[in-house]
Each structure stands twice: as C-alpha cells, then as structure tokens.
Design a protein that fits this description.
The chain is 38% helix and 32% strand. It has one helix spanning 26-48; strands spanning 2-8, 11-18, 56-59.
Length: 60
Amino acid sequence: MCRLFIYHGKNVVLFFQYSLIETSFMDNREKVIVLFQRIFLVVDLLIEHDCLKNHLGFQE
C-alpha cells in the first residue's frame, strides 16, 4: 500500500491512496498504471507552477 499526500497550508488539497495488486486481469493492472501516471503528472504540474512549494509530503 502506498499513500501520496499533497498539502497546501493547513488544508489537504489532494489525497491519493492506491495499491498495486498482482492480478490475472491485465486490464485492471493497466488502469492502475494509468492512475499512477495521472497522479504523478498532477504532482509534477503543481511543483512546476510552485503552487505547493514546501508543502509536499510523501509516505510509502
């Protein structure tokens, strides 16, 4: 289980909780991978625009 927290001040702007589970259904795994890509794309954009500078927290 992995958790990604993005904080902005005292308010939590975004919260993602996701898990990679080995499954026999390739479609589900592809969806999870796409979800990962979207999450980190959002994070990259926020960091790029300095919207959440010094307010990022990551936990694994």
